[in-house]
Design brief:
Strand content: 15-25%
Distance between the termini: 101 Å
Number of domains: 1
Oligomer: single chain
Radius of gyration: 23 Å
Helix content: 10-25%
Shape: globular
């Protein structure tokens, strides 16, 4: 009888310890589910203005030579709009923020743009998608390793694995297709690692993602920056009517009305 009592006591101790552990783990997992919209926390005044406020990556000479000319340097942003246009003649207000980046937002890459992103959070996998086309990002939370680049289809999104650490979601991404990063004129390749730490505010309404690009062959030092977001109201969802970049109307910003 005494043996049975000891066994039973040990069982309840283990169950209680397990429950406490699960409760502790649950408390360490931030609730990131839902929609998030990028904020202008530095006073950029526009999405292009925000882009200009990012630090510039320090690349090794080999990769500095691979970058195209910076369209923000030495150009008159109003050069394309100085001539008069007739009523009904559509034209584009030149926006130097259209400089090449290769990021593509969450549609085909890891970089954030003006479109909100939406996060679906499960135990084994996290899905991050956005308003627009594209498969989104899959962050595997089951402990798997990254595949060898030679056995993986490289892409702008790469391959992502994640875990929770000190109340943050930490994501490591590698196996990138070669190309520029979306911000700061950085560069990425198959062996580049991007570390993202999703840091949620105490009230759950603000999210800061800390980015670190690292690759000794490409970067003189790790390229680091932050992007902040606010939580969208509950019930928000990826819109069904999104801006198709393949539509010529996407590149048309003004049609002068007839003057009366």
């Amino acid at each position: 009888m005494r043996v049975c009592q000891i066994v039973a006591l040990a069982f309840f101790v283990l169950v209680g310890t397990g429950a406490q552990t699960r409760q502790k783990d649950s408390g360490a997992i931030p609730d990131l589910e839902g929609g998030w919209l990028r904020l202008d926390t530095g006073g950029g005044g526009s999405y292009h203005g925000i882009d200009l406020m990012f630090p510039r990556a320090e690349l090794t000479p080999k990769y500095t030579k691979l970058l195209p000319p910076d369209m923000d340097e030495g150009l008159n942003g109003n050069a394309a709009t100085t001539k008069p246009h007739q009523a009904g003649d559509p034209y584009v207000v030149y926006q130097p923020g259209a400089r090449g980046g290769g990021g593509g937002g969450f549609g085909v890459g890891v970089d954030i743009n003006s479109a909100p992103f939406f996060l679906v959070q499960t135990e084994g996998e996290i899905l991050i998608t956005r308003e627009g086309a594209g498969p989104g990002r899959h962050v595997f939370m089951d402990g798997r390793a990254h595949p060898d680049p030679s056995e993986f289809v490289l892409s702008g999104a790469g391959h992502s694995v994640g875990h929770y650490e000190n109340g943050k979601l930490v994501v490591d991404t590698t196996d990138f297709a070669p190309g520029m990063t979306g911000f700061g004129r950085g560069y990425k390749g198959p062996h580049t690692h991007l570390t993202e730490a999703f840091d949620l505010s105490a009230d759950g309404q603000l999210l800061t993602i800390h980015y670190k690009w690292d690759d000794p062959e490409i970067y003189v030092k790790p390229f680091i920056y932050d992007i902040s977001f606010e939580r969208l109201p509950k019930g928000s969802y990826v819109t069904e009517d999104w801006n198709d970049a393949a539509d010529p109307l996407s590149y048309q910003s003004i049609v002068p009305p007839e003057q009366k």
